[in-house]
Structures are given as structure tokens and as C-alpha cells.
Amino acid sequence: MAASCYGMAAISCGSSVTVRGFGVGNQFFVPSSLKRNVNFRGDEQEQAPASSAVPPPPKPTPPPKPKVKTGFSDVLAFSGPGPERINGRLAMIGFVTAMGVELANGQDIFSQVQNGGIPWFLGTTVLLSLASLIPMFKGVTVESKSGDLMTSDAELWNGRFAMLGLVALAFTEYVKGSALV
User: Fold this and answer.
1) Thylakoid as a keyword (predicted)?
2) Alpha carbon 44 to chain centroid distance?
3) Where are the alpha helices (DSSP H) in 32-117?
4) Residue 173, number of CB atoms within 10 A of its CB
5) pLDDT tens by residue, 9-37
């Protein structure tokens, strides 16, 4: 008798009620026209009526990318994109060239500069500086050109290590008084 009264309460209140031992799957079926969103068990969340379903909020649009400043003083500012990139690229070329000439001829870095290295240094500096600055003045960032293997962060770190390597090479050869190799 208690089970049938409990079942009647479910129909009159309009909710699906679990009654142990009765019905298929231990649940009474209540038509949706009779449901009033009453929760008898307490562990189920109330369901909103189908007619008042609220659509999900629209996805927010991503913020626009900040405009890249392309002025001369912006690109070559102390914290700008130009100085460290250019110095790092020049250091990478300089370190590899200095080591290559040292292995080929046995000259230390100071002998290389004294024996005609200044025009090569100036030419390389101008060429790499222009090749680095022209895209920066057009608003192209190195991050936009990064790939999976060749990333902008890897270039920065390689340039930093090359700068340290070039200074360490010059210092070591100065202290030693001859070529490193």
C-alpha cells in the first residue's frame, strides 16, 4: 500500500521516482506533461522544463593581436626586437667563422681581425643587419615565422650562447697567447 501511494505521489507531483522492487528498472514512468520538477530523492538535480531551455552563451571572440610597432625607435629600442636578434645572428656567424678560419689556418681571432678581417666583419654586419631589420620594419615578427624545429626562442638562445662563446674564445686566446686549436 505504501508503494502504491508513493507511486501515486510521483504521478501527481510529476517526477520520476525510484521505488525498490517495483516496475521495470525499479522506476515508474511519468509522462513529461505531468512533470513539475520535484526531486524526491535529493541526489538528482532539478530539470528545467523543455520549453524554457536557455541556449548556451556565445563563445567569446579572441582579443585582436596587438599591432606591431614598426618605427625606427621602436624596433631598435633597448627592449625592442632588433638589437638582440641582430647581435645574436652576428655572433652565430662570427663564432662559426672564427672557429672555421682557426681550424683551417691556425690563426687566433685577433690575427684574423688584423689580417684583413675588418672589411669582412663590416660587410657581414651591414648585410645581416639589413636582412634582419627590413622584415621588422614591415611588421613581420619572428614568432610568426617560427616552425616546429626552428623556433624564435631557439634562435634567441643560440644567439646568446654564440655571444658568450665568441667572448670566451677571445678571452681564452688572449690569456693563452695563441690560437685555441
Assistant:
1) yes
2) 41
3) 72-75, 82-105, 109-112
4) 20
5) 444 444 444 545 444 555 556 566 655 66
Which cell is 69 given?
Answer: 610597432
Q: pLDDT, tens digit, for every residue of 120-139?
A: 889 988 998 888 888 888 77
Length of the chain (residues): 181
Cα-based distances in Å from 133 to 74, 75, 116, 159? 12, 8, 27, 16
148-169 in b/e form (b: 16+ CB < 10 A) is eeeebeebeebbeebbebbeeb
pTM over the 0.85 mark: no
* Three cell numbers written together for 73: 625607435
18, β-bridge pairs: 27
User: Residue 178: what pLDDT?
Assistant: 80
Alpha helices in the chain (DSSP H): 2-13, 72-75, 82-105, 109-112, 118-137, 152-176
